[in-house]
Sequence to fold (737 residues):
Amino acid sequence: MASKSRKLTLGFVCLLLFLGPSSQLDRLLQGQELKDGDELVSAQGIFTLGFFYLTRNNYYLGIWLNDNSTRLQNLVWVANRDAPIFNNSGSLTIDDYGNLKISYNGSLSIVLCSGQEANNASAVLLDTGNFVLRETSSERQLWQSFDYPTHALVPGMRLGVNRKTGHTWSLTSWRGVLVPAVGSFTLGLEPNLKNRLVILWRESLYWTSSNVLFNLTSSGLTYYGYHFSYISNENETYLNYTGVEENYITRVIRPLKIDYFGRLSDENYTLVDCTSHDDTQGCKAQCRSHDDTFTPVSSSLKDGFKFDESDNLTHKDCEAKCFDNCSCVAYASTNQYAQTGCEIWSTLDRLIGFSNPNARTIYFLASALGERKKKQKMLIKELGGNVKASTVNGEENQQNNDEKIFSFESICAATSNFSIENKLGEGGFGPVYKGILPNGQEIAIKRLSRCSGQGLVEFKNEAILITKLQHTNLVKLLGFCIQDEEKILIYEYMLNKSLDFFLFDSTKKHLLSWKKRFNIIEGIAQGLVYLHKYSRLRVIHRDLKTSNILLDEEMNPKISDFGMAKIFGIKEIEGNTNRVVGTYGYMAPKYARNGLISMKTDVFSYGVLLLEIVSGKKNNSRFHFDYSLNLIGYAWQLWNEDKGMELIDSTILDESCPASEVLKCIHVGLLCVQEHATNRPTMLDVVSFLVNENLQLSPPKKPAFYINTVVKESEVSEIKPENCSINNVTISEMEAR
Fold:
């Protein structure tokens, strides 16, 4: 429905759109407009020129081949690839001076060609796909789209150079799958390489043909039916090709395109592909082996290194940034939809997990993924022997120590996907949840936090240690779960949570009668005796405190949280650690200052714990107006003034509370917190003191840290924690399970 003389008006365009098909022209005359919805179609209907959009509110003027494929697949030329119009106001016009331009938003324009004041200029779309501006009276060609190719080469289009003007003909890739802007790959002839066809990647050689006519091998372009010609004279040097011969009868148009991965292909074949990093077909050798490949996985990683958005990196650029950096193990586009921007990672330690709600497509170095899975299998074997993972329904796979490996799915089901309603507390290891297995068994689940002061070492430590330790006053480990970056420990559930839940709560502490408190004091001591003397391993807990004492339904104590524990040899008495861990207020002096550790380290912590149980107050509380006495100092002062009974929690004073038993506990507590480790009793001595009514105890000497002070960082030697804390110790504040 073409007319060479009419001028399209807005009203007429709207009428045509309302009636149905878009208006079609065979050529654009000076003074006419081609608006969004109008199309310019070549004489035989092979090509169409018009406005289109790939993403919302990004409009372009382009040329596409008319066949059964999608417009995105058929696009061969984009006029305003670096300057999209952000609405549908665009129109293509030839103004009164013969300028071919895209006008938009009423007054703005993108000039495609200056017509040099041509008379009666017109533009026509040829059946070759070439959009040509001519002076009507003389048929003088003013401009053609073939001189400004974008990403596609069609028959008759040139790759080369005009020797007189210096103008070059080359293809440039898109920036992303839906971003036509100029990308990082260029296809053209390279004079310095005997005019061979080359692909440049950001001006660096990426691929080169074996000869000028591009007959790579028997599987090259000629094999697929492309007929190339090479012309070189004093005016120009270029390469072009004629249509593809099908069945020796007809010639069809199969545009060659370079994509944002740097691959050269047509609709049927990939003719150049260096993404496999194989340099046997002209691809430039990379820093890695061609066997190194990247695997796309839906996953999540903590933030890696992000390149500046102004670098305009494509997905392929991002792969190269990772591939050329031999420490890089993963990469991803920052804009997943457009496949632009770049973020890379040098370690998989920041992996959050696979197929979670925040997952995106990340490309992992296959060898790195394989190595990570290998380490994970070794870890599972180390922790659980040959025990197989339990099923989703929580069935147990028994081993000698009754431990088992839980599947992550079973843990999610038991905790209602870690719902906030099932959260019991959070500490240095991470959050703790209550769970219920299908058989009705209640469990407590410790989930390693991504920003925990504890990590894989502590996880392994606790999992291995506690499976080898069996005592009525130690919490029982039921199993563990390792999947991707998930590291989870599963314990027996303690109905009454932890000691601090009652002891320091004014509304609950009355539930801890003196009888129950004394039972807790003795039970903790019995557990420590087992750890220090009678277990298969000699273990120093290093993080003994009220929040790490769990209480069962009968208020019996169980020591928990062995992530910080240290294993000693049978004959080993004292050791040194480069990493001080634990909680200030419970840490012995030598350990806090110098990293020296022994069984007496736990004895000091036990003494603090005992005084807290008697008084119902925290050690870091203040007990004097003039200077800051802590609980140890307050107990020491009262003891020297023969006022020891004033230390006892007022909520239990009304009951028949045996003064001798209370005073003995205070006495034992002060013996345990003496400044010099050699003066402190062993835990076996402590149990003897508690159960033997007639035993005479030596008087306590000056305690350590009896004034509220903190250990300065300068006083701690060689402390190198690997945690998220801002100071030099790992603070474990585990709350109730």
About this structure: The chain has 13 helices and 47 strands. The mean pLDDT is 78.
